[in-house]
Design brief:
- With 185 residues, this protein is mostly helical.
- It has one domain.
- 86% of the residues lie in helices and 0% in strands.
- It has helices at 6-52, 57-83, 90-110, 115-137, 139-158, 163-184.
Length: 185
Amino acid sequence: MTEIDRKEAVSALADIEDIVHRVRQSRIYNLASLMLIMWGVLVFAGYLVGWLSPGYSGYAWFAVYILGIVGSVVISATNRRRTGIRTFDYRMLIAFALFMAFGIFVSVWLGHFSSRQLNAFWPIYFMLVYTIGGLWVGRMFAVIGLTIIALTMVGYFFLGNAFDLWMAFVDGCGLVLGGLWMRRS
């Protein structure tokens, strides 16, 4: 057995740390990609219902959130059985509930937003979290978040009645494409 010098040991430890970081990021991207694709399909449906039948928009978004939360729990539970790592626990549920409560407080009680403003507020609000999360877990989150925020603003200021249809593609398809992009990485 040969001894290694200090330089080789430091280099080997750096390589191990790099591999651990890549594996962690890969697991995060794998789970996040499934969530993004699921939420993207649901969000696309929500905006499409809002564009085709504005009177049912509230019901559609309620269904989107319920199906999305249930789907997130199912994806997380399936991931836990497969990997042994818990990714969605009661703290995540509480954090999501607080996040939603604050968004509702700001948009409904404090801001009295119109339906168009709500349709711009919620994706910007959610994508802010993706962008901030990207600072810690990977650039792709930040890229997805900033892209959807920018395109939401373009649609809000420059599109009239087609804003919901625009958002179906920008937000819904943007999330799906972001999820597929993460799967590739």
